[in-house]
């Protein structure tokens, strides 16, 4: 089904909200206002937005250590997200989880996860629950190329395929796991080919083309909702930033590879398509959209920075291990 220009503008807006949120988070992190670790999703926004735009509110997703984009694309409140990064009581985890542990069950966001591949069995269980509930909701698992080498990926996808679970595995192949190129840790070019071993569809898509991602996600979601089981979608993409915003090791990625991918920026791409090809977004409309987003992020920062830290006596509450 064609995606209307209004919806495309909405997708562009969400991608830009993710980007502006993270640019600010990175800046405030380097200014020591944010604690823990911050992994930016900048450059990969089309994956989260393309996939989540194909979902219903009661569908569930799970994320990774690089999770801000998935949260925002599923509709999370950026005030509570920023407050969580700032370690404040008003944050999603009352300031005790930080960037890698943001969850919002009310919108079907089951959580980011600092353990590589840790989310994969959890969301597979959620897909089993969805199948038992029978309400037609589906589950989406976001994970990286590095995570696709973990045993839990293979175990989960095997059981999901065997039980015909309503789940879509979305591999964000950004070609590197920290400083290890994927070609050094796997003997195949396309992770999607792993689907063959489990008897499910495996699809490769340009992960920097939000409309293409949306299209393949819609097909996979329809299959899952119709009881036709799981799919594996591999989105070829790239992170613009280093592994973390304060990485201690030098970035091993070749400069020319980074700059080539920067030119394939997913936001620029949709913006230009709407502007030049379809005449659907003028420069001044884009500027107004961006300014409105910057204000929203400023408001989130003010909310976070003026919120209290959790009290010391609450340190042992809501934690599972002390
Ligand atoms: C079980 C486990 N092993 C190692 C790490 C350290 N670690 C954090 S992110 C990462 C790389 C993950 O690569 P990938 O899955 O491709 O995701 P990306 O960072 O590229 O988005 C590693 C090894 C970890 N957090 N958890």
Architecture overview:
The chain has 322 residues and is of the alpha/beta class. It has a single domain (5-307), classed as Rossmann fold, CATH 3.40.50. Helices cover 43% and strands 10% of the residues. The chain is built from eleven helices and seven strands. The chain has helices at 5-30, 45-52, 68-73, 78-85, 119-133, 151-162, 182-185, 210-225, 255-262, 266-277, 283-305, and strands at 60-62, 139-144, 167-173, 176-177, 180-181, 202-206, 231-236. It has a five-stranded parallel beta sheet, with helices on both faces. Strands 4-5 form a two-stranded antiparallel ribbon. Strand 2, helix 6 and strand 3 (167-173) form a beta-alpha-beta unit. Helix 1 (5-30) packs antiparallel against helix 10. The chain is globular, with a radius of gyration of 19 Å. Thiamine diphosphate binds next to strand 4.
Brief descriptors of the model:
322 residues; alpha/beta; Rossmann fold; two-stranded antiparallel sheet; binds thiamine diphosphate
Give a brief description.
With 322 residues, the chain is an alpha/beta fold.
Topology:
Layout: H1 5-30, H2 45-52, E1 60-62, H3 68-73, H4 78-85, H5 119-133, E2 139-144, H6 151-162, E3 167-173, E4 176-177, E5 180-181, H7 182-185, E6 202-206, H8 210-225, E7 231-236, H9 255-262, H10 266-277, H11 283-305
Parallel strand pairs: 1-2, 2-3, 3-7, 6-7
Antiparallel strand pairs: 4-5
Bound molecules: thiamine diphosphate.
């Amino acid at each position: 089904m064609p995606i209307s220009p209004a919806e495309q503008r909405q997708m562009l807006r969400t991608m830009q909200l993710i980007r502006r949120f993270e640019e600010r988070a990175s800046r405030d992190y380097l200014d020591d206002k944010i604690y823990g670790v911050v992994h930016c999703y900048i450059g990969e926004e089309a994956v989260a937005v393309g996939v989540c735009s194909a979902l219903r509110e009661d569908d569930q997703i799970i994320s990774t250590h690089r999770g801000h984009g998935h949260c925002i694309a599923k509709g999370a409140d950026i005030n509570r997200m920023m407050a969580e990064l700032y370690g404040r009581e008003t944050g999603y985890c009352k300031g005790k989880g930080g960037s890698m542990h943001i969850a919002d069950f009310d919108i079907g966001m089951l959580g980011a996860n600092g353990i590589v591949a840790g989310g994969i069995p959890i969301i597979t269980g959620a897909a089993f629950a969805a199948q038992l509930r029978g309400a037609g909701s589906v589950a989406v698992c976001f994970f990286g190329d590095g995570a696709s080498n973990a045993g839990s990926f293979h175990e989960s996808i095997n059981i999901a395929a065997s039980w015909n679970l309503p789940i879509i595995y979305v591999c964000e192949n950004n070609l590197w796991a920290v400083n290890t190129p994927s070609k050094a840790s796997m003997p195949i070019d396309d992770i999607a080919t792993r689907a063959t071993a489990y008897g499910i569809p495996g699809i490769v898509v340009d992960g920097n083309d939000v409309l293409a991602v949306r299209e393949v996600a819609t097909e996979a979601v329809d299959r899952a909702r119709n009881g036709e089981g799981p799919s594996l979608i591999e989105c070829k993409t790239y992170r613009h930033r280093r592994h973390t915003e304060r990485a201690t090791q030098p970035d091993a990625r070749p400069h020319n590879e980074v700059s080539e991918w920067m030119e394939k920026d997913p936001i620029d791409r949709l913006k230009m398509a709407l502007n030049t090809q379809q005449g659907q977004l003028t420069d001044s409309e884009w500027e107004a959209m961006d300014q409105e987003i910057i204000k929203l992020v400023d408001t989130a920062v003010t909310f976070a920075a003026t919120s209290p830290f959790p009290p010391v006596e609450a340190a042992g509450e809501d934690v599972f291990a002390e």
